[in-house]
Amino acid sequence: MDLSKSIDFLLENGGDIMKYRLHKEIIKDISKNEEENLLEKVMQTPKYKLLESYVKSNGYIGIGMHSWDKFKDTTLQDGEAAARLLSNYSIPKNEPIIKNFIKALRDEKVLEEEFSYYHPEIARFQNRYRGLRNGTGLMVLIYTCQALLGYGDDEEVKSFVETSYQAFESLLHISSLDDITKFNAKLKKKYNYPYIEEDTYFPCQYHLETLAHTTSWRNEESIDTLVEAINYHDQIMEEGNQITVKVGSKYVGTLWSYTAPFKEYEPNSLTGVAQLKAITHLAMVGGDKIEVVKKSVESVYEALGEDGIVRANFESSYQKRRFKEGLKYPGPYAEIALEQEYRNDIAIWCELTFWAVKLLDIVENFNK
Fold first, then answer.
1. Is the pTM of this model over 0.90?
2. For 287, which of 12, 49, 357, 366 could close a Cys bridge (C-beta 3.0–4.6 Å)?
3. Does the structure show a pLDDT above 80 at 191?
């Protein structure tokens, strides 16, 4: 499909981050010097400058990771949010801000200090290696952040990459969630969901993101197995599924475990949490061999229309407001956002159109 109209629209209406990523990743028409000039503009954007203000002398960025907001000035003052913004903005991995952050994420003393500001965080740090197989431990976040920043294929993260792959592969050995869940009817909790044991494999958002941003696990056989597992997942999972994980004597929530089928992109419905981001990451690990990606690509072609612009028909002003709020700061449940503000619909159309163009580019180049 000719995407020239979409690209022209984005270059005319998009901000500096969008133009930087378009030229660097999709058009691929700039020299090293031009790329450096565009990157400098990205680093002068308000959110990037705000992120820089949260960098500490030890290299860590923000307070905690996926932690309590009451200690932060903004949602961006968080280690995970910082890693996601740097990744979303495609900041090169050799930039000092990333190299120093990675060093901090691999320094036990630095991490112990960073997670000592609040009693629950101390306990969280002490138990950080628990729940790697199903997405309940702190190291799940720390490993994934390293992958997002381009360091996921290093030896320090390799074991978690393998765990992430096994989490998806394990789906091929069950026929439903009932095969791996248990239920404790004696628990006196408002929401008493079925649970899995701490050592049970089950995929979550962080496993997918880690695989999407790494290559060490990839060969023809492993990719085919992952595609098979994801397509099978969508056949056996049901909407409304909920699980917890039994860690010791406690029952804890997971980091967005994939207990329901993946939702395909529909031009007139943007109600799924981080729905577009999930489709992008699925495409990064399996291309359009994954059924939900294939169907989403078909819908993207429809949505682009004659003018090459993807729009959204929000059902209400509330739905539109919620969608815009989810673009404000990067987070696990937010879409990948590149614009700085959303005072008019054009900025939203830019985000959606860039997502569509990027998805088609990923799928087109997946098998090359």
1. yes
2. 366
3. no
